[in-house]
Amino acid sequence: MIRVTSLLSILFEPGFFTSEPVRTAVVIGGGAAIVSGVVGVFTVIRGQSFAGHALADVSSAGGAASFLLGINPLLGFLIMGVIGASSMELVRVDRARERDLVTGVVLGAGLGLTALLLFLDVTSSSTTGAAVTVMFGSMFAIPVSIIPLAEGVGFGAVLMVALLYRPLLLSSVDPDLAAVRGVPVRLVGLLHLIVLALAVALSAITVGAILSTALLIGPAAIALQIAKRPGWAVLLAAEIGVAATWGGILVAYDSYSWTGGHGWPVSFCVVTLIFLAYLVAGWPGRGRARRTPRIDSRRVQRAA
Amino acid sequence: MINTWIVATIVAAVAGVVGFFVVIRGSAFAAHALPLGTFPGAAGASLLGLNPLFGLLVFSGLGVIGISQLGRRGRQEVATALTLVTLLGLGALFLSMSTEYSQATYALLFGEVLGVSSSDLTPVAAISAFSIVLTALLFRPLLLTSVSPELGEARGVPAARMELLFLTIVALATAMALPVVGTLLVFSLMVGPASAARALTDRPLGAMLLSAAISLVVVWLAIAFSFVSNWPIGFFVGSLSALAYGGGRVWRACSVRR
């Protein structure tokens, strides 16, 4: 009979609970997961996954700039994210396909800017590995000084979603009905994109710009496959995100012992967990293409 | 240097042609995700001591499979996003295993003007020719399913298979552009110029050719500027593509008003 303590000591390598970087990762990563999961549900319903990914890449230009200017990287990500979101929303689009094109163009321009800034980083201050750090992040290397600002941003984003909940949900599921009911659909869209930019900046600085998409889209998509009511989907997405993040941190920490010292990156562990969870969650639905989420407008109308 | 011009010309022409379909099918995300997802392949291949091109093609294939298979079970763009991040997660893993990859990473992500050798010419030309021939053969059914999938199904053209073939064409077209333009920006060549071409003309064949032409101009200017300023070529590709798109929008707005 295996004793609980020895089981725990197998799962949690020594020093896990006392390690400072782990604690920071758990707090910030967990916060990023909650914010991303909550916002991500709306992003997936609205079909704006590309925008969510694009904002992560665009805000990495801000991260590269912050190296140059010597400012707090989170600030750099946030500012650039908001600029990107505004550019995407302020260009008038007539059709849904046009919206993805605008996203693509803004993304291209933003990445071009990132290329330039990283190039200037390297030549001006010889920070090698800047490309990797900005793109992939390093959850075990977050400076503790970021925590207050990050928590503030995260809280602000969730608060905005809570305030906007009804109009945001209605305009996401059924924009025409929302417009008829007097919801300022375009304004709500812009606000959603800005909240998205905040959520993305927060997660980009933890798991990295490119991989923040996983926390945004994955848990939300899984939750929407399972949950019937939008409220449940939001809670479930946050829970799945936190579970994947903490699980990934644990695996990454433990991996130091079986990879001879350098360990697997946290981002790889988290993303793999999310991908596996998505596969498992969708498994019962094989053969039945479910293209629309379980949330339909009638349910939302009754709630709104 | 002459190699770069030749490869860039080929790459831009293909990007313009394929980009036309990317724009009308609304597949900008896939056009971005597929080349970006190949980046880990190059890293993984060099870890194993294999030719990076091999790794690129393998991960390119994985991307196509991931997007099309997952896309059947759920939303297309969720499938694209999750396929992309999973491949990139593997990229993070491979990068962590090799100690000195930073400079190569930068070149792979953002391109390098002088990174093309004469031995690259033949495979690039071959794959490009193949992509163009495939696009030409599939022009009619591809156009049909892009504009109206239901009509396509009624006429016996299965939308799912067309999507798979289209993704494969995009994967091939982008895989070759990597050495010059980099994974992050090759999709810019497919989106900006093609959008501008669409704004200028409604005729499909005309728009496709115009898209290739604009794409050529963008790439030539980008190489020239990059060579002169020493700034990365990706920056110019991204900015010029955005300008092309903007120009197309302005033109459309003006011609509507007339």
Distance between the termini of chain B: 45 Å
Quaternary assembly: heterodimer
Distance between the termini of chain A: 54 Å
CATH superfamily of chain A: ABC transporter involved in vitamin B12 uptake, BtuC
Q: Class of chain B, according to the CATH hierarchy? A: Mainly Alpha
Largest interface, C-beta within 8 A: A-B, 64 and 58 residues
What is the count of structural domains of chain B? 1
Quickly count the helices of chain A: 13
Evaluate the radius of gyration of chain A.
20 Å
Structural category of chain A is mainly alpha
Proportion of strand residues of chain B: under 5%
Uncertain runs of chain A are 286-293
Task: Give an account of the 3D structure.
The complex is a heterodimer of chains A (304) and B (258). Chain A is mainly α. Chain A has one domain (28-303): ABC transporter involved in vitamin B12 uptake, BtuC (Orthogonal Bundle). Chain A has 13 helices and no strands. With 258 residues, chain B is mainly α. Chain B has a single domain, classed as ABC transporter involved in vitamin B12 uptake, BtuC (Orthogonal Bundle). In chain B, helix 1 runs parallel beside helix 6. The mean pLDDT of chain B is 84. Chains A and B meet through helix 3, helix 5, helix 6, helix 10 and helix 12 of A and helix 2, helix 3, helix 4, helix 5 and helix 10 of B.
